[in-house]
Amino acid sequence: MKIGIVCYPTFGGSGVVATELGLELSKRGHEIHFITYNQPVRLELISNNVHYHEVNVPEYPLFHYQPYELALSSKLVDMVKLHQIEILHVHYAIPHAYAAYMAKKMLQEEGIYVPIVTTLHGTDITLVGSHPFYKPAVTFSINKSDAVTAVSKSLKDDTLRLFDIKNDIHVVPNFIDLEKHDLHGFTDCQRGMMAKDNEKIITHISNLRPVKRVQDVISVFYNIQKEIPARLMFIGEGPEKEKVEQRCIELGIIDKVVFFGRSNEIDKILCFSDLFLLPSQTESFGLAALEAMASGVPVISSNTGGIPEVNIHGESGFLSDVGDVKDMTKNALYILSDKDRLKTFKDNARKQSLKFDLHAIVPQYEAIYEDTLANCLVL
Prior knowledge:
By secondary structure, the chain is of the alpha/beta class. It has helices at residues 13-27, 68-83, 93-108, 123-127, 135-144, 153-162, 188-191, 214-227, 241-251, 266-271, 287-294, 325-336, 339-353, 358-378, and strands spanning 2-6, 31-36, 50-54, 87-91, 116-120, 147-150, 169-171, 200-205, 230-235, 257-261, 275-278, 299-302, 317-320. It folds into 2 domains: 2-175 and 358-378, Rossmann fold (3-Layer(aba) Sandwich), CATH 3.40.50.2000; 178-356, Glycogen Phosphorylase B (Rossmann fold), CATH 3.40.50. The protein is built from 14 helices and 13 strands.
């Protein structure tokens, strides 16, 4: 198949999943065309089966905000015609499914029919999409898609609760390439660059937005390090970073916290981590937690959204109510305070991650593409 993929080309989970999906599909013999305003961060190799097409948005004084959706729709029309793309897979209902539908209608005027598969990732539903200004557009975009997927059952349930949806929604979870999480690829001397032998390594990865409750990360770590020697690895950039740094200074733990920014060495950091913290206000899936578990790192998380579908309470880690720092601290200390118990949780975390191996998940997308194309031929 010739598949066009539209996504945000950023460090966020949706962009990572969309890129990894396209790369794996290309290995399975499909021709993949990424269509977005920047090259996706995980798209390191362009090949005969992988192509990138940049969406340029011309600036005109007439527009106070430049019309990205219009530029994207036009680019989709051009790319479908030029490369005979058979199906569009767009990640996020708005603006991507909305723009794809406009492209679809323009192409129909020329006798070209291209179906749309829309994947919902969370923000387009629970935050942006539920806003009264956008709700009609989100509802329209989902209902006009030829197939719809959601990355968790929780997100599917939220979508059906918040919107008047006529379409079926297939739950296809996020996935991970376990081959990239080799637990034996690094040496102990590299661990020594991050922490002393007697220190536990605690890790958090996010875009440091308020929804990630990064202040709770600091609070939990502060409590942990009072009982057990530990260091905190903070990976990511975002609006809360300055506040987090200031809080660390106020608590007197700034020397125990390492800020990596947007690191390309996440796998190395996770390889030596003993615990992962994800106390988010909401998560449609919790891809960062899955990446940690694939590296054998147990997870202390909130019990919101799709996280309980990934992190199993009492096995791969523990779940707590949002904002319950006391319970998160208790659970973290329970795991970290006993060497054998920590190993058991690490083993369980790795075992749980196997359920989300990309070789098990990507064929589900292939089946949806094939069914969608077959249904379109019938129509």
